[in-house]
Amino acid sequence: MAYKNPDRHPILLTSATTQTVSGQTTLDYFDKIAAAIEMQQWLFFALVSSVDDDGVMAVGLLNGLDGGKVSAASTPSMKVNVQGGVFFVDYVPFRIMSDYTSADFVAPVSNPRIDAIVASATLGAMAIIPGVEEAVPSVPAVGTGEVLLASIYLRTGMVTIEDSDVSPFTEGYITDQRVMLNT
User: Fold this and answer.
1) How far is 143 from 134, CA to CA, in rounded Å?
2) Residue 17 belongs to what H/E stretch?
3) Contact at 8 Å (CB) between 54 and 64?
4) Which of 40, 107, 121, 137 has the most C-beta neighbours closer than 10 Å?
5) For 28-76, how does the pLDDT look when each residue is reduced to its tens digit (9 = 90+)?
């Protein structure tokens, strides 16, 4: 669902029906709701009008610049933590309030693999898109309604996921892929 007015002007009274009560003309109740939703879309669009990309909104009330941040679990393990946040897909904002802790990732068997962590507008939750084991792996494609947050590089024989690729370079690691829209 894209904002329907590319000229960036709010449309408040399009196809509105009115009724006259006690000599006053007012908008029908449902048209008021539609107008309010369209105004909200316009305000969000104006906020990120220079950005033609999907991504993460930096808003102070919900994790600020850490919205959607993926990090290694505090106790070394095969899990990652993802912070909730406000996201934008196809000019439509959505919010995931809850932080997310993944299930254990499974180490690849014969070649490295890259999995993707996304915020899904369709699911209203974080999701993992598994990659393919290859000699030179690549980040899996992100689907419609999803925002890429991070990629997880998984190595054969690994036992933990780290925040970055550290020596001796035998463990999995996280690469931040977030596009911050309003910073």
Assistant:
1) 21
2) none
3) no
4) 121
5) 666 667 667 766 766 666 665 555 678 887 765 555 678 899 999 989 9
Domain 56-176 indexed as CATH 3.90.1200: no
Contact of 178 with 56, CB cutoff 8 Å? yes
HSE at residue 4, side-chain half, CA atoms within 13 A, is 9
| Structure token pair of residue 8 | 């960036």
Angle, CA 142 vertex, CA 54 and CA 110 arms, to 5°: 145
**All structural domains of the chain with their residue ranges:** 1-47, 56-176
Per-residue CA distances from 29 to 11, 18, 24, 160 (Å): 16, 9, 14, 55
Burial of 147 (0-12, 13-18, 19+ CB in 10 A): buried
- Residue 169's region, left for phi above 0, alpha for psi from -120 to 50, else beta, is left
Among candidates 144, 157, 171, 56, which has minimal Cα distance to 129?
144
